[in-house]
Amino acid sequence: MKSNPLTEELARLLADGDWHAGPELADRLGVTRARVSQQVAELRRLGLEVFSVSGRGYRLREPLTLLQADSIRAELAPSRNELLESLEVLAAVDSTNARLMHADGSATRACFAEHQSAGRGRNQRAWASPFAANLYFSVAHVMLSPRAPLGALSLAIGVALVERLRALNADAGLKWPNDIHVGAEKLAGILIEHRGEAGGRSRVVVGVGLNFSMSPEQAETIDQPWVGLADCVAHPPDRNVLGGRLLDGVLEALVQFPEDGFEPFRARWRRLDVAQDQAVVVDDGRRRRTGTARGIGADGALQVEFEYGIESVYAGDVSLRVMTETAT
User: pLDDT tens, position by position, for the chain (328 residues)?
Assistant: First the structure.
C-alpha cells in the first residue's frame, strides 16, 4: 500500500481531536466535500476511529500525535544519529520490513509507518496496525561477520528495547525468543530478516511492533492477551519520543552485537526473562512437551529441562507457552 498524501493531510487536520466541518476540510484540502468523505472512509479503513455528526462535521475519538522524523531523531545519541543515514515516516505501507528489505545499498536506514497493511509477526502472524495507535518501525543495517549466530540477534535487540521501556517505568520482560511482555500480556514483538551479500556481509532488517494505545475495537483481530504502553505506564511519552528512544536502543545493539557477540546481552537477558524456572509447553508442530525453562545458551537457544535432561530449543522450530499464560 502506498502512502496517500491527501489521507495523511486529513489525518493531520483532524489530529487535534476537535470537530471540523466538511466545507472547512474541503477548502483546506482543496477538494470537494465528496472527496473529503472518501478520505474519511479511507482513514476508517486504516483503523482510525472518526466520528461524524450532521451539522458538526468530523472528529477523532481522541487527539493524535503523528510521527515526525525530526522529532524521532532528536532522541538519538550523537553517534547513532550519525550512523543512521536516512529515516522516513510514512502514513501507510504494506510492511516497514519489506520496504527496507527491498531497498538497495548498504546504508543504515529506518522506516516508521502510521499504518501497515501487511505487518507481520513471528510465524507470519498478522500484526494489528491501526493508524497512529501504535509504533511500527524497521531498521536496516549491514553486518560483517558477527561474533555470534544471527539467530541470537533478536534476543539482543529484545534486551535493548526492554531496558529502554523499563527506564519509562514499564514492568516489561522478555519471552523467548522475540516477544516483550508485561505480565502475561504481550506488549511488543520483534521480527528479524536477513540476506547474504558479497564479502561475507549480511543485510539485517529489524522490525519492531509495539502496542501503544489501541482501543478494544481496533484490537478485535488479536487472538492473544495484549497490553498497550499507555495502559501500564502512568505518564507515557508521546510516540515520537518513544520511537526515538527505542530506535536508539536498536541501533546501539546493532553496533555492539557484531563487535562483542551475544555474551554481554545474555547476562542482561537473565534479569528480564519471564520464563526463567517456569513450567513451559514446547510445541514443534508434531508434539507438545512440558518442561521447565532454564535460561538461554551462548547461542541464544532456550534451555529446557525435560524428564530426561536439558535440551537446547531453537527459535523457528517451536512455539513456546509459559504455563501461567494463555497464548503462545
Answer: 456 788 889 999 999 999 999 999 999 999 999 999 999 998 888 878 899 999 899 999 888 889 999 999 999 999 999 999 999 999 888 899 999 998 888 899 999 999 888 755 554 555 567 888 899 999 999 987 666 677 889 999 999 999 999 999 999 999 998 899 998 889 999 999 987 766 667 889 999 999 998 766 665 667 677 888 988 888 899 999 999 999 999 999 999 998 888 999 998 999 999 999 989 888 877 888 899 999 999 889 999 999 999 999 887 656 677 765 544 4
Q: How far apart are CA 90 and CA 79, in angstroms?
A: 25
CATH match for 69-271 among 3.30.930.10, 3.90.1170.20, 3.90.1520.10, 3.40.50.720: 3.30.930.10
Residue pair 314/296 in contact (Cβ under 8 Å)? The answer is no
Beta partners for residue 113, in sequence order: 90, 136
Region 5-60: CATH code:
1.10.10.10
Q: Which residues are catalytic?
A: 122, 186, 321
User: Which residues in 113-125 are b (16+ Cβ under 10 Å) and which e?
Assistant: bbbbeebbbbeee
Contact between 76 and 84 (Cβ < 8 Å): yes
Helix, strand, coil percentages, rounded to 5, for the chain: 35, 30, 40
